[in-house]
Design goal:
about 425 residues; alpha/beta; Adenylosuccinate Synthetase, Chain A, domain 1; Adenylosuccinate Synthetase, subunit A, domain 2; Adenylosuccinate Synthetase, Chain A, domain 3; 3 domains; 4-stranded mixed sheet; about 30% helix; binds guanosine-5'-diphosphate; binds 6-O-phosphoryl inosine monophosphate; binds magnesium ion
């Protein structure tokens, strides 16, 4: 396998975790490069379900090294919980195979308090964030007042930063948002305690990646969220506060762009979105309910019901361009089984004109109508298929339409949540 990144092409929850787990077989190191525990990546291995929010989805292979890059915002409490859960389940995760970048920013209790209070203040206009403090933490990073993992190794620096930051944050929480102020002492105590546990895991991720690449090791970068949640390229402001796109591996893990050979975009066979924001192909009818139920479309992080709709290839095509996709991994094709007819959105109609990419203006987007290509569905259970030829002709036609509209070849097709419920089209990807 060659160095590769896996990104979401829609609004997150495309099944990146499953695809990363599958591809990890051919990698030596697996790296997250942005986002935080707003992510929820689900793997089903040997019938057992695991959900990861921060630790890379490669962690179940005990001979692989997993890295958390500088581009993440890390809630240390969540990281420690995730580590404990793995250890309790018999998966060893010592510092020899889990590394947290010293430059990663830490989510603090005031970030979560601000995230929550702002959503309340926005009322109906809320973004529907995951409430994990992601946005406020990235704001502090850019404002140059953030607290980084390296600060856990220097208790006096940590304490000073928390005290200084809280003065401003408490003013904002109390006077502007009408929320409770926070006491610095228990926060300092808690972070020092967590720091003691985490210090052995903190190091230079960029350097480790450089040394690994020099030795010919293979690196798999794991994207979180999706391209249309990207703070630059997504449906702004209904986005997350980081750049999930493939190019972010450079800034978010400390590597050069020439490291990548393959860029795999994960595409759910229909569209979902959790949280607020525009959704051109949304189905608010019994077909939407059918997909939601069959696909068990509830958020892995917040448990919220995911909004469902037809596959929007305008969205996927934008992602193919922005990420430079070299291959697609189509997931959850099995969920569409049983629908008589399927619609695929191949373009939008905006003010009487046919357009091929999503407009930046939300008011223009609200006027966009989907132009559908109607396709025949299939009734057969496809979860046992392991080659394309075992799929019904209608399912193959559906896949062909995706390839034709996006111009990107399909490398993998997933027909169930389990690791083995997969059709590997590009045999070079999985050894
Ligand atoms: P991620 O955030 O992109 O990793 O995706 P999530 O884990 O949040 O959501 C994807 C959900 O779909 C998880 O519950 C997976 O177990 C499940 N899943 C992944 N691939 C398939 C598939 O091909 N078929 C079915 N039925 N479920 C799948
Ligand atoms: P994975 O990696 C789906 C959404 C939230 C909200 C918006 C902003 O599992 O695909 P935030 O808490 O990031 O400030 O929320 O982004 N969101 C996701 N939706 N999958 C995710 O991650 C998401 N991470 C954030 O629901 O609409
Ligand atoms: Mg998810």
């Amino acid at each position: 396998m060659e160095n590769m990144v896996v990104v979401g092409t829609q609004w997150g929850d495309e099944g990146k975790g499953k695809i990363v787990d599958l591809l990890t077989a051919g990698a030596d190191l697996v790296v997250r490069y942005q986002g935080g525990n707003n992510a929820g990546h689900t793997l089903v291995v040997g019938g057992k379900k695991y959900i990861f929010h921060l630790i890379p989805s490669g962690i179940l292979y005990e001979d692989k090294t997993c890295l958390i890059g500088n581009g993440l915002v890390v809630d240390p409490e969540v990281l420690l919980q995730e580590m404990k859960r793995l250890e309790d389940g018999g998966v060893s995760i010592g510092p020899e195979r889990l590394l947290l970048s010293e430059k990663a920013h830490l989510i603090m209790p005031y970030h979560k308090a601000i995230d929550a209070a702002r959503e309340v203040a926005k009322g109906k206009a809320k973004l529907g964030t995951t409430g994990r403090g992601i946005g406020p933490c990235y704001e502090d990073k850019v404002a140059r007042v953030g607290i980084r993992a390296v600060d856990l190794t220097e208790p006096e620096v940590l304490e000073e930063k928390i005290r200084t930051n809280l003065k401003e944050k408490n003013f904002y929480l109390e006077k502007f948002l009408g929320a409770e102020p926070l006491d610095p002492d228990p926060i300092i105590e808690g972070y020092l305690k967590m720091g003691e546990k985490l210090v052995p895991y903190i190091g230079d991720v960029s350097l480790m990646l450089y040394e690994a690449a020099t030795k010919g090791k293979t690196i798999l970068f794991e994207g979180a969220q999706g391209t249309h949640l990207d703070v630059d390229h997504g449906t702004y402001p209904f986005v997350t506060s980081s750049n999930p796109v493939a190019g972010t591996i450079c800034a978010g893990a400390g590597v050069g762009p020439n490291i990548l050979k393959q860029i795999i975009g994960v595409v759910k066979a229909y569209t979902t979105r959790v949280g607020a924001g525009p959704f051109v192909t949304e189905l608010q009818d019994e077909i939407g309910d059918y997909i939601q139920e069959r696909g068990a479309e509830f958020g892995s992080t917040t448990g919220r019901r995911r909004r469902c709709g037809w596959l929007d290839l305008v969205v996927v095509k934008d992602s193919a361009r922005i990420n430079g996709l070299t291959g697609l991994a189509i997931t959850k094709l099995d969920v569409l089984t049983g629908l008589e007819r399927l619609n695929v959105c191949v373009a939008y109609e905006l003010d009487g004109k046919r357009i091929q990419s999503r407009p930046a203006s939300l008011t223009a987007l609200a006027r966009c109508k989907p132009i559908y290509q109607e396709m025949a569905g299939w009734k057969e259970d496809i979860s046992g298929a392991r080659t394309l030829t075992e799929l019904p002709a209608e399912a193959r036609a559906y896949l062909k339409e995706i390839e034709e509209i996006t111009g990107v070849p399909i490398s993998v097709v997933s027909v169930g949540p389990g690791r083995e419920e997969t059709i590997v089209v590009d045999k070079l990807l999985v050894p």
